[in-house]
């Protein structure tokens, strides 16, 4: 994107003026519809504003323009998962981790989408990969325990809870209470 456009965007966003920033991006994209940076920025601003459908449309276009760039697929999958579009999210996030196997957030999102689809064993594998890449983040561990609980793998649930107690004892205790009071359906 030209420097002058970036500066104008920065100015509008610094002032907290999202609407003029979006109008500027609309103008840029009307002239250069395949400008990846403008599409990604507009998608981000639209998602922040709660217009997920428009953000998904921008990110879909971005992934068509840059099919070999993992971040576009991750962002698309993230929004699809948030909208409950589990099949589409799983496809997008699988594409992201194929392109960048070290993208821990994409593995996490893939696990969430796979859980929504009832593909628990595959979700376990995705969460395991996420926890390998982010061993001290409680999020992947928490979801891994929930996936194990769905499979009635109590020994694995206990192993994850014990691991969590080492660095996030509050999270481990809350998860233990959750799994006892509201066990997941297999």
Automatic annotation (TrEMBL):
Q: Where are the TPR repeats?
A: 70-103, 104-137
What keywords appear on the UniProt entry? Repeat, TPR repeat
Superkingdom assignment: Bacteria
**InterPro entries named among the record's database cross-references:** TPR-like_helical_dom_sf (IPR011990), TPR_rpt (IPR019734), Ycf3 (IPR050498)
**Entry's Pfam families?**
TPR_16
Q: What is this protein called?
A: Tetratricopeptide repeat protein
Can you name the source organism?
Answer: Inhella gelatinilytica
Its organism's taxonomic lineage begins at: Bacteria, Pseudomonadati, Pseudomonadota, Betaproteobacteria, Burkholderiales
């Amino acid at each position: 994107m030209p420097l002058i456009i970036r500066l104008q965007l920065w100015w509008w966003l610094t002032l907290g003026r999202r609407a003029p920033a979006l109008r500027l991006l609309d103008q840029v994209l009307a002239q250069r519809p395949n400008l990846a940076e403008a599409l990604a920025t507009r998608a981000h601003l639209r998602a922040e504003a709660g217009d997920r459908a428009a953000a998904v449309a921008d990110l879909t276009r971005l992934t068509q323009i840059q099919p070999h760039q993992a971040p576009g697929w991750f962002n698309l999958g993230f929004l699809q998962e948030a909208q409950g579009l589990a099949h589409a999210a799983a496809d997008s996030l699988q594409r992201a981790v194929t392109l960048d196997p070290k993208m821990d957030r994409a593995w996490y999102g893939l696990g969430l989408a796979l859980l929504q689809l009832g593909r628990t064993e595959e979700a376990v594998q995705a969460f395991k990969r996420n926890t390998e890449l982010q061993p001290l983040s409680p999020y992947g561990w928490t979801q891994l325990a929930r996936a194990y609980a769905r499979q009635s793998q109590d020994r694995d649930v206990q192993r994850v809870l014990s691991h969590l107690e080492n660095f996030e004892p509050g999270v481990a205790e809350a998860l233990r209470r959750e799994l006892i009071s509201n066990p997941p359906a297999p």
